Amino acid sequence: MTERIPERPHRRERALRWRAAEYVSLDFEATGLDFERDRIISFGAVPIRNGRVELGEASYQLVDPGDRPVSPESVTVHGIRPIDLVGAPSQGSACRSLADALRHRYVIAWHAGVEIAFLSRLFEVAPRRWSRSMIDVRDLLLVLEGEGAASLTLTDAAARCGVPVADPHHALDDAVVTAQLFLVVVGRLVLRNSLRTVGDLLGARLTPPPVLRRPRAPW
Fold first, then answer.
1. Which of 54, 91, 112, 219 is 20 to 30 A (C-alpha) from 142?
2. Mean pLDDT split into 10-residue runs, the chain, 219 residues
């Protein structure tokens, strides 16, 4: 399956100013959140180029989960029923479509561990293959606003930053919201002189507070 793995951006692109790189905002909905067993049932992918969301190039696809049923709990979240997936493209077809959407682009996501886990299973590669070119918008927001933003959902964060939300938990709308939120948060971080390059975005993390320990006795 390695032939389907999309090529990552070249490492030298990390030195580029952030607007000079291409990104794609990605969101999955799935049968559940057991990353070993569950499968994606839809994805939304929205390119970002020259600091702009390219809605005309966005893609959305339902995906047949095969023999993995959609859990009732998941249906209450995303509203995709088993009947909606009858005749949907296969997981293999989703891989091919995703490979086209992700090729030579940095991937951005909200709470990116979910997307990393499902991408790793779809393409049968280690999670680190994706984490090296993945930017977590939640991490960027934490750098901007501090630990107080840790409990925010994507919808909460969007409302705080003035980003409209039309259809929460729809993969395409969530990808669009994530893309717009990314631009808002990065713009504010740039004004702070907190980041400039793609490498700055990839490495953005909230530094944890130091752990205070009682000094050891000298004897």
1. 54
2. 76 96 98 94 98 97 96 95 96 94 96 95 92 94 94 97 96 98 97 90 72 43
C-alpha 146, offset from chain centre = 20
pTM, 2 dp = 0.91
Grouping H, G, I as helix, E, B as strand and the rest as coil, residue 37 is: coil
Q: Would strands 23-30 and 106-109 be described as parallel, antiparallel, or unpaired?
A: parallel
Distance, in Å, from the CA atom of 140 to the CA atom of 108, rounded to the nearest integer, reads: 11
Token readout for 19 is: 């607007």
What is the rounded distance in angstroms from the CA atom of residue 196 to the CA atom of residue 11? 16
| Res 57: pLDDT | 97
Distance of CA 7 to the CA centre of its chain: 17
- Domains of the chain in start order, with CATH, are 2-203 (3.30.420.10)
Amino acid at 23: Y
Nearest CA to 114 out of 141, 91, 93, 137 is that of: 137
CA–CA distance, 27 with 78 (Å, rounded to integer): 12
Q: How far apart are CA 181 and CA 140, in angstroms?
A: 10
